Automatic annotation (TrEMBL):
Family matches, as InterPro entries: AsnASE_II, Asp/glu_Ase-like_sf, Asparaginase/glutaminase-like, Asparaginase/glutaminase_AS1, Asparaginase/glutaminase_AS2, Asparaginase_C, L-asparaginase_C, L-asparaginase_N
Pfam family, one: Asparaginase
Name assigned to this protein: Asparaginase/glutaminase
Superkingdom field: Bacteria
Length: 334
């Protein structure tokens, strides 16, 4: 019989509250697969435990191993697709790494819970059920890796956690959801046209994500290099601008062969080299910084980890982050 595999990694969806607070529950992952509604959907649902950790404990290597494990499971002809259960805190990172690196095109839907197993109105079972339905949708294989919570389906590349506590926490700012799950119907509205695959044999783990601030002297960036980081994602302001002393640090790092990818603390719109003053995006790019057109820092970090598994050459890396910036302006090609 055909099956959907739930690959569980931990998170609040597999946690309960004790005297210390909310913590992983050893049978938590098992409970995920025992939702009565999953018995009547015409396919088997099988559980495979990958880990049972809070998602802030997830490392780049865990994510990469998860990607390889999922590709292995998807080789089985009876497996229709996979639901990954995960903590919400870093779900946007893991799901994006899967989206970039999975070889298989079978549907993979990541889900989680904001309320733990024992909590009133726990959202885990509902989210798992909706995610299994999403995997079974005939349109799901065209959508890339998805994130499904609170009856909404989002593209892994676009989604981010926006609320510390509310069940309606996942959103795709500037894009909106791909679709919804409503009364057992999976309804897609759109496809993400910016999806890409970067197939690699390894990833570069040592990528730092550093947020700039007013008065920043750039020394945190320099220090990141000193302690062995191979690439840096720099979260700047607005269009991708930083204080002048940070611009000096960026220039030094680039001259030492360390790629610096500039993102923005704004999570909508595009990072773009507009400003030519010292520290402005155009200035930084002239000094060799890479503009990440997609502004969210944690997404750029995942992408840089993957791209640097392929190349360490700054100009090669640039091509992955700036697909439009250096393109010649063509208004109409008849
Ligand atoms: N701290 C938890 C985690 O990410 C939160 C969650 O699962 O929602 O593992």
């Amino acid at each position: 019989m055909k099956k959907v595999v739930i690959v569980s990694t931990g998170g609040t969806i597999a946690m309960v509250k004790n005297e210390n607070g909310v913590v992983p529950y050893e049978k938590g992952n098992l409970l995920i697969s025992e939702i009565p509604l999953l018995k009547n959907i015409g396919v088997n649902v099988e559980l495979m435990e990958f880990s049972n950790i809070p998602s802030p404990h997830m490392t780049p290597i865990d994510m990469w191993n998860l990607s390889k494990r999922i590709d292995g499971i998807l080789l089985d002809r009876n497996v229709i697709g996979i639901v990954v259960t995960h903590g919400t805190d870093t779900l946007e990172e893991t799901s994006y790494l899967l989206d970039l690196t999975l070889k298989s095109d079978k549907p993979v839907v990541c889900t989680a819970a904001m309320r733990n197993i024992g909590e009133l109105g726990t959202d885990g079972p509902r989210n798992v059920y909706s995610s299994v339905l999403t995997v079974l949708s005939p349109q799901a294989h065209e959508m890339g890796v998805m994130v499904c919570l609170n009856d909404e389906i989002h593209a892994a590349r676009e989604v981010t956690k926006t609320y510390t506590s509310n069940v309606a926490t996942f959103d795709s700012p500037g894009y909106g959801p791909l679709g919804i799950v409503d009364e057992d119907n999976v309804i897609f509205f759109r496809k993400s046209l910016t999806r890409e695959k970067i197939l690699v044999d390894k990833i570069e783990e040592k990528i730092a994500l550093i947020k700039t601030f007013t008065g920043d002297d750039g020394n945190l960036l320099r220090y990141a290099k000193e302690i062995g980081y191979q690439g840096i994602v720099l979260e700047g302001f607005g269009r991708g601008n930083v204080p002048p002393n940070v611009a000096d640090a960026v220039e030094e790092l680039v001259n030492d062969g360390i790629p610096v990818v500039v993102t923005s603390r704004c999570f909508k719109g595009r990072v773009y080299p507009v400003y030519g003053y010292k520290g402005g995006g155009a200035y930084l790019r002239k000094k060799g910084a890479i503009m990440s057109e997609h502004p969210i820092g944690q997404k750029a970090k995942i992408k840089l980890m993957v791209v640097m598994g392929k190349t360490k050459n700054i100009e090669e890396i640039r091509k992955y982050f700036e697909p439009n910036i250096s393109r010649r302006k063509i208004f109409y090609e008849g």
